[in-house]
Write a structure and sequence with these properties.
Elements (H helix, E strand, L loop, with lengths): L7 H8 L13 H48 L3 H20 L2 H5 L1 H23 L2 E3 L12 E8 L8 E6 L2 E3 L2 E4 L1 E7 L3
Parallel strand pairs: 2-6
Antiparallel strand pairs: 1-4, 3-6, 4-5
Helix pairs in contact: 1-2, 3-5
Length: about 190
């Protein structure tokens, strides 16, 4: 910057201090002014370049954070497709266990089969829990469109309208995401 208290030539010379000799015109004041203007332009370009570098670094950091977040989500939800497919197996196993009549449960020849089916069901639920797959609570709760799919309405004087009164198919979450909505019947006012 040119100091106004100094003579013009001295101020320009101070401004150009450190500029290589080949860039300095030893002629008239016009040469000094031209070099001073060129130096000022170079300084503006340098500041612009510094800003561009800062923006590029910030963008790189944002991309890195986004990729890290996506990687974490991919790891956390990698089993989603498989879990969705295996839910039908869990449903069929639960139906099989529920369908066993008490007479067969008490029969010594069938007791081993019943115990094995129940143990398999518990193990499957344990594996689900270890991977963050949990069953959605439905019965007796108000209908939540984010977790329940109302399949039909049932007239009921015993329940508030909009309350889940029957679960036709269990709903499941994987961590904080919906894996499968629960298919339910919802109470309505009797006619």
């Amino acid at each position: 910057m040119i100091d106004n208290d100094k003579p013009r030539d001295q101020a320009a010379e101070d401004e150009l201090n450190g500029v290589p000799e080949e860039f300095l015109d030893k002629g008239d004041d016009a040469g000094v002014d031209t070099v001073a203007e060129a130096l000022a332009a170079l300084r503006r370009d340098l500041e612009t370049a510094k800003q561009d570098v800062l923006y590029a670094q910030a963008e790189t950091q944002n991309v890195r954070r986004r990729l890290e977040r996506e990687k974490d989500e991919a790891r956390a939800y990698a089993a989603t497709g498989f879990a969705r497919d295996i839910l039908s197996v869990a449903d069929n196993l639960a139906r099989a266990v529920q369908a066993i009549p008490e007479s067969l449960r008490a029969d010594d020849s069938m007791k081993g089969l019943v115990i094995g089916l129940e143990a398999t069901q518990r193990e499957l639920e344990k594996v689900f829990a270890s991977h963050g797959i949990t069953r959605i609570a439905s019965m007796g709760l108000p209908l939540d469109p984010n977790q329940h799919q109302a399949m039909l309405e049932v007239p009921s004087a015993d329940h508030e309208p909009g309350t889940v009164v029957q679960e036709m198919q269990a709903g499941w979450m994987i961590k904080d995401r919906l894996l499968r909505a629960a298919m339910v019947a919802v109470a309505k006012k009797p006619d």
